[in-house]
Amino acid sequence: MTRVRGTLIDGGVAALMTYLIASATLDPPGPAYTGPTAVAWLVAAVVAVPLVVRRRWPLPVFAVVAAAAAIATATGVVGFGAIFLTWIPVALALYSAATATGRIAGMLLLAGALAAPGVTIPWLYLRTGVSSADAPESEAPLWWQVELGLVVVLLATAWAGGRLIRWRRALRAESARRLARDAVADERLRIARELHDIVGHSLSLIAVKATVANHIAVERPAETQAALLTIEKTSRSALTEIRRLLDVLRDDDDPAAELTPSPGPADLPDLVERLSSTGLRIDLEVSGAEELPTAVGLTVYRIVQESLTNVIKHAAASRCAVTVRAGAGTVHVEVTDDGRGRQPSRKRRGGQGLIGMRERVTMYGGSLATDTRPEGGFQVTAAIPYAAAEEPA
């Protein structure tokens, strides 16, 4: 649509320039052209009509228009005192060509554009002997210096405008490329955090369960089998999520890049089932989280996952409660246990898991609090605002 509109505009400009050039040739400020009228109109059309396709073929159009204007000037089929009108189409073609070429080619175009009138305009005046003294009734000064000066200024201005537009387009293209690179970097950082959460949670749970199985393998084989089953489920789930994240890094046309949905509140029951064991009871309550945005749902899942991993690794708890409530544009997450609370060593190190949770919540303008409960145990609470999906009208 934009190209069609541009062509229509150029068609109107070409028609207008054809009329102005022919009129200036037949009725100029100075001595009039004495040849056939049809020749004047034909020359005007040859100079101006190629402008219709200057956006599609800028270099060929410039070559044709510049050559036609130079021949018309050298042969005298121009209007004395208004020769610059014949060179306006050349200026327009030069502008388009300057936006489409590099620096060296652009300089060559400018040199050629200035050389053509620099040779033909003085040649015309010297050959015909026309001057202001010979035509005192002229409406414009008949000096080749004035005519050439006008044409040079016209061409140089058009060329400078074309180069400026090309420079601005290059800046915009570079800005777009930079934004694309930043977006890719942000996405890779997000994937790295996801991998940290997946690997850290899964390996921690596997290590804990493997330790339990190793100690009770002989005395309590049933519990050993349950621990091994949890290790199997956890490892399979971790591998699936890692493959999903790594698939994001594949090329879009890679047929192997088959993505699965990101985990969310709907996957919390399965998570709780995998983490539950004989020594730890996990109570889960989820309400109103069905319509959470995908990214917010993933954040809720990761907060619960990291919190439960910390309970298993550090709390020595027998019971844990997980509550997720969403409504009024905010989702509240609470994970509490009856274990031994914060350990001094964990407090000193800060914990990458807690830092990751805080970064996720802060990204949405929410809040995260982690502290020891007065009645014993540890508590993680988070409030994450989100934009509710609008119902279609």
Q: How would you describe this protein?
A:
With 393 residues, this protein is of the alpha+beta class. Helices cover 63% and strands 10% of the residues. The protein has eleven helices and five strands. It has helices at residues 2-26, 37-48, 58-75, 84-100, 103-128, 144-216, 221-248, 268-275, 294-315, 344-349, 352-363; strands at 281-287, 319-327, 330-337, 367-372, 378-385. It has a five-stranded mixed beta sheet, with helices on one face. Helix 9 links the parallel strand 1 (281-287) and strand 2. Helix 6 runs antiparallel to helix 7 (221-248). Residues 251-259, 343-350 and 389-393 have low confidence and may be disordered.
Q: Assembly type of the shown chains?
A: single chain
**How many DSSP H or I helices?**
11
The topology string of helices and strands comes to HHHHHHHHEHEEHHEE
Query: What's the pLDDT, averaged over the residues?
Result: 81
Distance between the termini: 31 Å
Quick one: biggest sheet?
A: 5 strands, mixed
Q: How many beta-strand elements?
A: 5
Round the Cα radius of gyration to an integer and report it: 39 Å
Could you name the ranges where pLDDT drops below 50 across 5 or more consecutive residues?
251-259, 343-350, 389-393
Strand content: 5-15%
- What's the structural domain tally? 2
Main sheet strand line-up: 1-2-3-5-4
Helix content: 55-70%
Apparent shape: rod-shaped
Structural class: alpha+beta
